[in-house]
Design brief:
single chain, 767 residues, Leucine-rich Repeat Variant, 69% helix, microtubule plus-end binding, ARM-type_fold, coiled coil, Stu2_CTS, microtubule plus end polymerase
Amino acid sequence: MDSEEPDYSSLPLKQRILHKNWKCRLTAYEEIQKLIDQDDSKEIQIISEPELLRKIVTDSNVVAQEAGVAALCKFIQFVDPSLSLRTRDVVVPSLIEKTLASTRAGTKSKSIEALELYVELEDPEPVVNHILPFLQNRLPKLVAGSVEALVTIYQDFGAVTVSPKLVFPSIPKLFSHADKNVRAQVSSLSLVLYQWIGDAFKDIIFSELKPIQQKDLTKAFESLESTKPVQKRFLRSQQANQESENDVSMTEPDIEPVSDSSAKIDAYDLMEPQNILSLLPSDLDSRASSAKWKDRVEVLEEVQKVVAVPRMASGDYTRLVRILGKSLKDANVQVVQLTATILFLLAKGLRGEFEQYLSLVLTPLLERTKEKKPTVLVSLCDALNACFESSSLSAVMEETVLQMANKTPQVKVETTKFLIRCLKNSKTAPSPQHIDLLIPVALKLVNDSQAPVRNAGFEVVGTLMKIVGPRPLNEFMDKIDDRKRKNIMEFCETAEVSITETTIPSSTTRATDRRPKPSLGPTTKCSPVPSKRGPSSPLKRAPSSKQSPPSRRAIPSVASRTNGLTNRSLTTARSISRVPDTNVSSAERLELENLRKEKKQWEQEKEKYEWRQQEHQTERVTLMKEINNLQEKTKELLNEETDKTVIIKSKDTQIDRLQHDLDLARERIRDLENEYKTEGNGRVNTFKSDAALPADPPGRFSPTLSDGVDRLSLDHAISEHKENLYGTDYSKLLDSSDESWRRAAEVTFQLKARIEKMKARSKYSRV
């Protein structure tokens, strides 16, 4: 007969949790769940100790452990979040190590649920960071269970709430794991992340995977449904926001609650910024300005490799951008293409931070669009698009409009096309000042003699009309004929713009368009409004008491346009506007007169303000024209300077060549002098010995003497030729050897006399 189980209910709860008997501990864990349901704060305070909870989830008995994990889930879900957060760093590592590799499905599922409850409390990052070390554990089951927990967390909370940057470094290593279950789980994790971040996953991970792994993942991605993932679980803070939004939507049905679950994830935010400034060549300045184009191309290729990163760290890139701005003016198209590619990578890598360097490169980029080579032009256009994406429409508008008036037709066309792309992709409408600046230039484009320039002008005006509407362009449209107006309207109808509101800013609208509309009652009829009503008319009294007063929303718009009126005067004017003409007291009449004076003063100030605005605008346009002229002059001066530099370099080359020829001539002269000295000394000695001997027959000495004379005559002729060729320089070089030349002349004279004697002797003998 079996002995009855002892009754452990009389023992204190903490003692039962620490009891050796697993059944006693099991009853304690089950009682914890009941106490939490009953909201027994005293007992809950006892079990909220982190070490006690850690012991519960690491119970040696699998049945008791499952009950303990279930008790932990209830504790996190219903107890004060501050108590649960205090236990997180102690309980979570032990929970992962002892339960995620469990063979009991219930224990494993409850453990993942507990991790998700911890994620809900505040910040998901600490929980994910506790899981990551176990991805390198020796036990494949524990690694697979940890990856499965991550898959569940990202499936339920989404990659918007839980940053995928935390797990990116571990994914390539897990794909190389020896266990197939681990590889299967990391594939599931990759599919979940791809659903949330799209192709950004490929950009970040694929470079570290093997080709076969890339191929398998690509097939798996293609098999996924195109439906967008939805966040299923939310943080406590997100739940509170949803409740408040639901309350607002109940009171104001027109306002729909907005959820962050559908927010678009930018791959740029997932990248780690890299510091490239320290990797640039140290001799970048000297090599970029080298006279040899190969050196310039070589250093730009090195820079391109350095800047080819998806995200760059903040820093001072002024020096690099200045060098690139100068390189855009290079005569070599390969240098220009490389520079444009580097600027494209810089703008993509820096994004908003690149806007501060825009003034250094935008004008050179636009001016260089005169290139005819398609590949160079494509690189320049890509760089221009990246510059706009990293800045705004207002940042590129002025320089672009100035270059639309360039003398080169291709620059006009490409600059106008660039502005069209900016207008179509801009999220904001151009300002009134920019519209006024663009209209005169666009008028010249549509009246240009070349068809490509005219078509570009039609398209830019049509795109602008699509954004701001036809009213601001009425004055412009009146100046062109019907055929051109038809072309503009065709482009306006087919243009696709990103901006949703096709209205211009209120400061450019006429007073008739921006006056407040009266709020009509259910039975009130609206009287016709005069079309020529000015900005001062909203303060007039209503002609009849039946007409409804202006709405409360209209008053701030009027006040925003006034400079002299105060809130008190507006309020008084509004009250007076409702008073009939009869039965008006003297005090009210006096106040009405004061208001009229204030109104007149306001009108005068408004006229002065508008006049000053018009004067400033005219001055601004004039200054813009002067800037354009100065830029043209600067360009001409730079071209002249370039031509002069080329001429100087050509002269330097000629001088170097002449100097080289002179050095060779001097060497040759020295060789000839040495040779002459040697031969001359030998002949003098021979002649002296011949004078002491008896006379020889003429035939014996005649050839030798004639040969010597011929050689001397030849040397003399050569020297005269060189003197004529090199001028006085040759004579100067021979100053040191004048004595040798004199001796040579004397010998020559003696030889000639001896020859004459020999000739006379031969004649005498014949006779």
